[in-house]
TrEMBL record:
Insertion element IS402-like domain segment(s): 27-103
Molecular function via GO: DNA binding; transposase activity
Transposase IS4-like domain: residues covered: 122-248
One BP annotation, GO: DNA transposition
Descriptive protein name: DDE transposase
NCBIfam families to which the protein is assigned, alphabetical: transpos_IS5_3 (NF033580)
Native source organism of the sequence: Embleya hyalina
Amino acid sequence: MRNLRVPQTVVCWGGGVSERKSYPSDLSDGQWSLIEPVITAWKHRHRSVSGHQGAYAMREIVNAILYQGRTGCQWAYLPHDLPPKSATYYYFAAWRDDGTDQVVHELLRCQVRERARRLEDPTLVVLDTQSVHVAAGVPSSTTGRDPAKRVPGRKRGLAVDVLGLIIAVTVVAASTHDNAAGIALLDRVAEHATTVCKALVDQGFKNAVVAHGSLLGIDVEIVERNPQETGFVPQRKRWRVEQTYGILILHRRLVRDYEHRTASSASRVHWAMTQVMARRLTGANTPTWRDPQTVAV
């Protein structure tokens, strides 16, 4: 017995049509329709001088980025029926550098909040950090050791709303104090979500973050843990950021930081959350080992 993948028709820019079996990470027609206008508009603004439209459809480029993020494979190990590293990395880097990945992410975030009957931008965010190991070859200048968690690598900081949606992300060396990461997150929150007036943080953040928040017009509250509680005890509203970290770790490219540039690490977070939100908006669930598999008889 073997698992079957549903055939998917792929239309290339040159007009050719090919068929391949779809991967679980592929965008459905409904999911692609959510982000296609942004990608198509970008493509029209970046036409080749020679008029060549490229050998691969933009949908397939996005599928390749999502496949790699979900499986964690190296660039050279992308499947042969997806665009190769040369094409996929070109667009990944271009969209990272000009912020297109964030535009796509923000478009879906606003739609998810609207579906939950909330305003586009929140008034409250939750901040937290997560230290992760790095892969061999990652520049030592962007890494360090987190003395509290005893993790050598990088520190990933998130600011999320009460739905667990990402408002801001920062990636720094793991040796960076939570205060510095928190200040950077608050700056990004103030820049992208001017409606935020309150932020919740844990005891790892100190008075420097509170003081910086007051300068930005954001009331930062340090949520203290009850000393009588043992083990992991979810804190009201603050648990959302822990949930988001748990969701992101399902994308194996984020389990360990493989990126040479911290900007690429942040882009991986945006693409992972984009995939999560696209599934939510279309009512799709991520396949798990518990799901029954279609088999050949």
